[in-house]
Amino acid sequence: MASSSPITPRPTTVALSLLILGGTTEASRLAALVADNAEIAPVLSLAGRTREHAPAPIPLRVGGFGGVAGLATYLATNSIDAVIDATHPFAARISAHAASACAIGDVPLARLTRPAWMPEPGDRWQVVPDMAAAVAALGSTPRRVFLTTGRQELAPFNGAPQHHYVVRSIDAPDGFTAPQATFITARGPFALADEEALMHAHAIDVLVTKNAGGPATAAKLKAARNLGLPVVMVARPPEPDVPTFHEPSEALAWVEKLARAKKLASPSHRAAP
Ligand SMILES: NC(=O)c1ccc[n+]([C@@H]2O[C@H](COP(=O)([O-])OP(=O)(O)OC[C@H]3O[C@@H](n4cnc5c(N)ncnc54)[C@H](OP(=O)(O)O)[C@@H]3O)[C@@H](O)[C@H]2O)c1
Predict the structure, then answer these.
(1) How far, in Å, from the CA of 61 to the mean position of ligand 1?
(2) Domain 3-114+238-271 in CATH: superfamily?
(3) Domain boundaries, the chain
């Protein structure tokens, strides 16, 4: 069930109503940028997956919308003028729902996402399309695996109990049944020296990660490179074909342009001498 914090009324009726789909650093940075802009009336939406979320500088709602139909209804009921999908690159369902719901309501949609990581000289990446392929890529010989895919992506690895897993996630995982496992709960950013020390201390043979991108968790890739370790890299799912920005300031410029257009089209502006 969704919950909402009180939404502060804005002094102007021509402010652009902006929905930011969040749950990422990029969404939080965009929220901070729009917080004091009188031309924009923003709301930040979170799925409510993490047990704690940081206070937001703009009105916040938490919880799913109820699929495409629920999101389309939310957009119409709240007179949303534009949507920025700043969700995680692997949150494919909400991105697809946003594309469909915005198409239904003819609401402009843009994507704010961090660039994917790219291999560098010395990297030993095996790129795979999904978690099942990542499990297969580990092979049948027992290995010591540093698993950093996030706690909601662990179930496929239960099917390969021959490996020893060192599982790192923000919140402790539920339902991971592989018999040989070490659990580490930690939130990035992580430093290179610490990543190298961790991989060394646990005698890691291979790193498994999603191509989340971004600097906060990139040190593990450099650590693997420095230690000569292979990386099983799960590729990103396809994204909807919408205007895409990598920097919150670029997304803000897109929103500000829409806000100016809305203001110019408003009756009060047209009536002004
Ligand atoms: N997947 C990751 O690796 C990852 C990592 C870091 C952060 N996150 C964040 O965690 C959230 C959930 O990720 P996921 O992979 O479970 O998403 P998902 O599979 O794409 O979405 C599943 C459902 O969660 C709800 N939902 C997702 N994001 C929402 C948002 N920002 N506001 C309101 N409802 C939202 C929607 O429910 P309804 O259909 O009921 O609307 C959606 O259908 C995302 O917001 C994402 O940005 C994900």
Answers:
(1) 13
(2) NAD(P)-binding Rossmann-like Domain (3.40.50.720)
(3) 3-114+238-271, 125-234
- Rounded to the nearest angstrom, the distance between the alpha carbon of 185 and the centre of ligand 1 is 21
| Cβ of 21 below 6 Å from ligand 1 | yes
**pLDDT digits 0-9 by tens, 228-251:** 999 999 999 999 999 999 999 999
For residue 16, the CA-to-ligand 1 centroid distance in Å is 24
> pTM score, two decimals?
0.89
3-114+238-271 and 125-234, same CATH topology: yes
Beta bridge partners, 58, equal: none
Would the CB of 47 count as within 6 Å of ligand 1?
yes
Q: Look up residue 92 and give its DSSP letter.
A: H
Q: What digits encode the pLDDT tens for the residues 70-113?
A: 999 999 999 999 999 999 999 999 999 999 999 999 999 999 99
Q: Are 176 and 76 in contact (CB under 8 A)?
A: no
Pocket test for ligand 1, best of 29, 88, 209, 236 (most atoms within 8 A of CB): 88
Into which CATH architecture does domain 125-234 fall? Answer: 3-Layer(aba) Sandwich (3.40)
Residue nearest to atom 26 of ligand 1 (CA): 47
Dump pLDDT digits (tens) for 205-221: 999 999 999 998 999 99
**Hey, what amino acid is at 5?**
S
Give 200-257 as a DSSP string.
HHTT--EEEEE---SSTTTHHHHHHHHHT--EEEEPPPP--SS-EESSHHHHHHHHHH
